[in-house]
Design a protein that fits this description.
seven-stranded mixed beta sheet, alpha/beta, 11 strands, 22% helix, Rossmann fold, binds S-adenosylmethionine
Length: 352
């Protein structure tokens, strides 16, 4: 990756002033062992995002009885129960957290930033996973090369991340990059090692949080999940092909289907996006109300792809924590969109 980010003739950008030699610097440059000496028995993601992480791992690791390295591990490796691993090695910094990890068969305390060389022989692992931790690597190019070395040919390196971090310990380059740029950055880490197939990307964004999540009432979507992954080169012949991950909005209808379904909404009163029955809804009775209709029909399915995608669409437009629902006006026979600030919004007006 080209980390000489401030070329003299480039127009001003937030990358200006980031030099190659400090792109991977951190606010807290003290020994990582000190920062991670504090036990953190917390989850770094909400429950929906965690389930996505587990699903990704479960789908991609299709080896029978694999030997796995959880790189930068803690008390939970997010491995699904059906994964019949022969051995799971956890490499991290906090022994107490690793001791609590019931999935690990071995624990290795090793500071990757102090020494990016992995203390394992060549071709030892079928898969290496790195979850919500790549942002803390100060020597990612070396680490990605090392991972390729300890993977069996055709073995999987799966890097999963979100948008939360310990700002003291995340690298400068990571912090100033957008989420899309972080995906490109991790792809570059893979490519620069020259030992992997072309890395693939999976993104899950804009899903609703679980109802019981403490931020659900704020309408903030579930933590986004990005997975960048590749097999190490070689070993492809006769190997079971790795499954393609389904895109997060897989199953939603095409634009054409939606427009066809919108034509029949009058007869069916079904949401053109998810097919569920829309509910009769009465606008608020307020002296300031500008509604000129007695009732509408709204799709109140919280998992409707239209709502799920809406969080991400609104977020990218600067409207954080907002989405929208499909509304049908029976008097004008027209389909509209109504914004929401949480999954609870508008529900007090449901009358059937
Ligand atoms: C945000 S936690 C993620 C833990 C775990 N992978 C998970 O999914 O919950 C970051 C982890 O990276 C590990 N870590 C941070 N810096 C490290 C370093 N320099 N060398 C090795 N591990 C490190 C810490 O021990 C910590 O458990």
């Amino acid at each position: 990756m080209n980390t000489a980010l401030a070329e003299p003739n480039q127009s001003a950008s937030r990358f200006d002033g980031v030099r190659q030699d400090d792109a991977f610097s951190r606010l807290d440059e003290s020994d990582d062992m000190l920062f991670y000496a504090t036990d953190r028995f917390v989850q770094h993601l909400d429950a929906v995002a965690l389930a996505t992480v587990q699903k990704i791992i479960g789908e991609l690791l299709n080896e029978e009885s694999p030997i796995i390295l959880d790189l930068m591990a803690s008390w939970d490796s997010h491995l699904p129960a059906h994964l019949n691993a022969t051995r799971v090695v956890g490499l991290g910094l906090n022994r107490k957290e690793l001791d609590e990890n019931k999935l690990l068969s071995e624990i290795v305390i090793h500071d990757l930033n102090a020494n990016p060389l992995l203390p394992f022989p060549d071709a030892m692992f079928d898969a290496v996973i790195n979850t919500v931790s790549v942002d803390y690597m100060t020597k990612p190019f070396e680490v990605f090369r090392e991972v390729a070395r300890v993977l069996k040919p055709g073995g999987l390196f799966l890097v999963i991340f979100s948008n939360r971090m310990f700002p003291e310990k995340a690298t400068k380059l990571w912090q100033i990059s957008s989420e899309a740029e972080r995906v490109a950055m991790v792809q570059e880490f893979f490519r620069s090692a020259k030992s992997y197939e072309e890395p693939k990307v999976f993104v899950s964004r804009g899903r609703p949080r679980p109802e019981d999540d403490r931020y659900a009432h704020l309408g903030i979507p579930s933590d986004p999940i990005y997975a960048v992954y590749a097999d190490s080169v070689g070993g492809q012949t006769g190997k079971k092909p790795r499954p393609e991950l389904e895109a997060s909005d897989e199953g939603s209808m095409t634009v054409q289907t939606v427009s066809e379904k919108s034509k029949t909404i009058k007869d069916t009163l079904q949401c053109p996006h998810c097919g569920q029955s829309m509910k009769k809804w009465v606008p608020p009775n307020s002296p300031f109300s500008t509604w000129d209709v007695d009732y509408m029909y709204i799709c109140f399915n919280d998992e409707c792809p239209y709502v799920v995608r809406g969080w991400g669409v609104m977020d990218r437009q600067g409207n954080r924590g907002m989405s929208y629902r499909v509304m049908y006006d029976p008097q004008r026979d027209s389909c509209l969109t109504i914004p929401i600030i949480s999954l609870h919004a508008l529900k007090e007006g449901i009358v059937d």
